[in-house]
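Researcher: Structure prediction, please.
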Amino acid sequence: LRAARGEDKNESISKWGIKIGEEEIVTSVLSEALTEYYAKGNVQKAESLLQQADKKIPSEMYSFLSGFWSREPEKAIRHYTEAIRRMHHFTKAYFNRGNLLEKKGDLDGAINDFTRTIEIQPTHAPAIFTRGRLYARKRQWENAIADFSRTLDFRKYPTIYLSRARAYVAMGEESHAIRDMESALAQYSSEHPHRSRVQQKLSILRGRR
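Model: Predicted structure follows.
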């Protein structure tokens, strides 16, 4: 908004006689749409800007943002699919579509999208963790443990340790589960609301041992 109140946004381009290419036009439209949506709260105008601009210069970013803003999951999935068709290595589009497919109950479709996300960006920790969680839902414990372990290479969150611990318990590997629960506890502060529940589960596991 501050920029819009200032000098002509194309002043330097006009001054030097540089032609405006498609990429600059798309960026300009995105800037305007984002300003309308987030700074001014004009949701309909922002969405209309993307729709009208897409008719002139189709862009994967228009499709992605339309999907991100959509309040209808099916419509959002269609937008993400179109974004992927336009740019086959669009990591965020695969990841967001995967999350929506999971909510629909299409676990296999979601796993495929998260797998594609990881192929494109091997360090995408949220995709690796979420795929592991879906493997756990399908009781594919070894795959789940592999993904949780891989996620821990990037992030040492208690949730990841506890997710892997549950998978280890399901496989009967309680000693590994105990170690993971101890690692999770070490991350929690003494006042954390989940601490007592984890301690209780850990005591039960130790008792079995």
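Model: The mean pLDDT is 92.
Researcher: Thanks, that helps.
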